[in-house]
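quick one, two chains, predict together pls
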Amino acid sequence: MPGVLVHGSGHWVAGRAKTARLLLLYEGIGLGSAGVSLGGLALTGASQYTVTPFAIGALGGLGLFGVTLLADVYGVLAPEAGTGAPEPEPPRFEIRSGLLYVYDPLFSHEYFWSHGFSLEAGGLRLSPGFELGLDAATYRYSLFVARRLLGARPGRAARSGSALDITAGVTEQAYHDDAFGLTALELRLDSRLDLGDLDSNLAGSFAESSLGYAREFLRYDGLEGDQTDELLARLGFGIYLGRPDGVHGEAAIVYDHRRDTLAGGMRFAGVPAGYAGHLEQTTRLFFTPAFGAELGFEYGSAFTTGLSLLFRPGARP
Amino acid sequence: MIRKLLLAGLFASACLEIAGERAQRDRTIGKAEAAENRVEIRDGLGAVHRLDAAALEIWANAPALEATLALGERAPDSFRLLVRNALPDAELQVEDENGAPVTITTLSAEVATEKRFSLAVRRNARYSLRLAPRDVESREPFEFIALADVQEALDRVEDVFAKINERSEARFAMFSGDLTQRGKRSQLEEFQRKMRSLSLPLFTTLGNHELGDSDLPYYEYFGRGSQSFRFHGVRFTFLDSASATIDAEVYDWLEGWLELSRSENHLVFMHVPPLDPFGIRNGAFSSRAEAAKLLSLLGRGRVDMTFYGHIHSYYAFENAGIPAYISGGGGAIPERFDGIGRHFLAVTVDPARDGASVSVVRVD
């Protein structure tokens, strides 16, 4: 229990005072940011004129609190060299194909074929993909274009997994059985911080965050459509599994604030209503340089789980 | 099988069907059995506060109530009926199982929205009751009040009620949830006590703040969260969106209500709106897909207007082409910098025309 409240206490007990102070400092920043922001939201009645910075501050603060907690646990339990290391450079081409199961009490769809690939070309990473309903007329198509601003790229290796990308994308969703569709245009900054860059006791773990904006267009068959906005924010913690010269991969748990996915946003018993996004847990493992698998879970207003095979054509040991 | 395993194993405490229990509670409202007597209010449009051998007390949550009352061996010759939160001009008609009228003595009531009667009844007999104003089936224009979100301002709600009483043409108020801060019995009782100063009845659904007490006493005091009734040829529907979603069973009910109202005005009320006019804030449904599903359904069902609470301000906009109003001005912490504050809406409906005219009435 003390470790849940005072992050870094695990490292303190293990005699790693520097790491303990670092985690405690970031926990304090997180709690301070969350406290000020939640107070601001309450005082302003979540005014439309001030809600954006307060929402970002609250999400960032709570996310930092979660990351420092998990990092403290990881640093104490992980072997000295960490649970693994990042790949020195991302693949130029990767294909993903699998099955996605969705349980949503309000929609009839359950099984989807999920397929996509990512390709690095001309300094840009293109990532088209789709989820096709196998038992209902629900379809999602997406295309994302990302430019890496910092970090390793194909042909430019780095020891650290830290990276910064700017990503633009469009997602088209059609729910034909319920006579509506949804298109989202988005722009966001995606970052990964290799926590080993901060402190060697945290080597093998990373924090992820994303911040952006989406404009959404809702269509209804035979009716006028609507437009709305969405704050895009992701915060998570992950660990590398294994080394790139053997079976390797990574696992991460992420809070994603968006509610326009198949998972939607979480619902809570009692007074809280409507403000939260969903949780994701993803594990990726490569058994050979070319072949791997990805297992994922999402929990929001729906529960999803997916298993995909990963293939990197041309990958060499 | 796969679904059951996944759900049981991984998310036993999950909240995917969070409003399901409330839909089940809805189905029980308006039914009671005690001292060999049995009552059932049609469509659950009222909550039974008391039923014993000699008396029945009902909290009305609609302008017109129909009920069946079956009396047992222990019923007295004179059976007492008390209906609270009724229209002041509502009249009672009672018939026995042969269609013969029952002698009714109207007793004096303490407030305008209370109706007290003594019925001359027989033991082991069955009666049909109907309490409604004479003009319930009229097609004349009428006014009603729309409001929401009193919450922590319960101690000064009298100001709002006094302002509502000034609208002498208004027939009733439609409240879109968050009567109280935590939905505790003491708070709900205080709200009903304060309602005694109102000159008209206030019909309501629940908001997320009514979920603060896990026993959900709201249902005992006010009745259903999702229900539908007609007045002057206009359909009024409450949907329970207090958990930022609507239960699957309520969607089934809604489809039936939409079917019933295709040729008449239909106004829909709920607490949490499907979409927040300021989407980044998302004081709205927890799933954008569900928001779109509901709005598509309402639009195709030719709903004329939607009214919401939850956001403590006033917004007039459209969703799926349907005029939409958020009025959360009952007194809860107001949205700052918008210059709105405490307010309610006065809505005039002409059943001969689609839609209605809406004006904002400021309290402060």
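The helical segments of chain A are 2-5, 9-13, 17-43, 51-77.
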